[in-house]
Specification:
The structure is a homodimer of 174-residue chains. Chain A is of the alpha/beta class. In chain A, 29% of the residues lie in helices and 24% in strands. In chain A, helix 1 crosses helix 4.
Chain lengths: 174, 174
Amino acid sequence: LVPIVSVVGRSNVGKTTFLVKLIRELKSRGHRLGTIKHYRHDFEIDQPGKDSWRHAHAGSDVAVIAGPHKLALVQRLQEELPLEAIVAQMGPVDIVLTEGYKGADAPKIEVFRQGQSNDLVCPVDELVAIVADQHFELPVPQFDLDDVAGVADFVEGRYILGHASGPARQKESG
Amino acid sequence: LVPIVSVVGRSNVGKTTFLVKLIRELKSRGHRLGTIKHYRHDFEIDQPGKDSWRHAHAGSDVAVIAGPHKLALVQRLQEELPLEAIVAQMGPVDIVLTEGYKGADAPKIEVFRQGQSNDLVCPVDELVAIVADQHFELPVPQFDLDDVAGVADFVEGRYILGHASGPARQKESG
């Protein structure tokens, strides 16, 4: 199973900005990454009038644009897909990072910024780490908003390398 | 296996315009459609600066945007995927229509318009139909550029219904 880690937090707290930095950092370390951005409402992926999505607008259930270096696919859904069903479509990656999905079962890192809210959006027992501009008196690993390398170390050690070498490590400690 | 039909033709002959009409027509008849637009060069799917694709730009190998009614996925490729590999990713559809892929093995419908060229781009023995504003002295079914219903009947009868009821029909004629 591919490990999944969700980046959650209140609106406008800087989730995308933080996640973009984390993606760059983990990518520079050589990992294959999948990412999922969750929208509660419908979204538009098209550049209006652009040829490439005219098929999708015409009513195609699954519209693909295929090039030599990239494949883009837009699929109409009868109902929202659960996280696991999406991950199953993603092909081989070392880890999947999601933005949103605070209701799902994956381990969560909450991004927090003062002024945007006074408390965390997730119950502390669902959090594996907090990335914030203040310290919380909570038994959870905490990182500064700028400490992307620290969070990358944490994610890498616990979910990517730990995942890949899981059985071997168990053996060592036994 | 999902039937595949490719719409081919020279540049600026109106392939997308024709295919968009055919998609609408087949969709209105209740079929589940997959479509693939083939680009020989790289393409841009992003709306620059839009949040949704910042993950992909940051280096994600597979970037998904997931909403209640739509799923969009952008996958980086080491090398171009063959048509069959793409179709395998598309989920359950009744037919896949492609724009381009004139080098692939699928049955082809050529769109032709006077003034854009003097001859067909595909060898006649690869064509299952011609959609044009002139008649060719060739042993291939031919349709007017405006005869979308006629082409839809042809595709439906030969590839969608024929496909679904293939064994039953064989039995009847035996």
